[in-house]
User: What shape does this take?
Amino acid sequence: MKNPSKIIRSDNLTWPDLERKEYKTAGAGFRDISRYVLLGEREDETGLNMQTRYFEIGEGGYSSLERHRHPHTVVIVKGRGSMILGERVEQIELMDAVYVAPGTVHQFHADRGEPMGFLCVVDRYRDRPEIPKDAEELLEWIPDPEVRKKARI
Ligand code: MN
Assistant: This one.
């Protein structure tokens, strides 16, 4: 059998041979975000038990506010922004590496005058993200009003 090792070529943070997908097909709570699954989804990549994705958030956009059991490794590879990471808001800079621990509420914001792109590594098989169903539940997730002000649902 042919060795499935390969290189997926990039052109300036696009991958012409891959599909650029909408962030999610349904639901609200996010704005101006696209994604590529770089590795770990296709049938010739079953050697991987993780997926490596690239997300890009347009200026002023944000990802879903969510939590889940699986952790994230995130590396900022374009621009900068900020994020809700559990009980705090953090500025995130180019090439910063973020660990989002299991169960941690998180949301990425491209809120510093430019788009923000990041690599995100997750388990190939993982639990579905949970999102707060209303403002009342958000209050339980993020008790600190200063942090909660940052949240978009
Ligand atoms: Mn997540």
User: Anything to note?
Assistant: Helices lie at 135-141, 145-148.
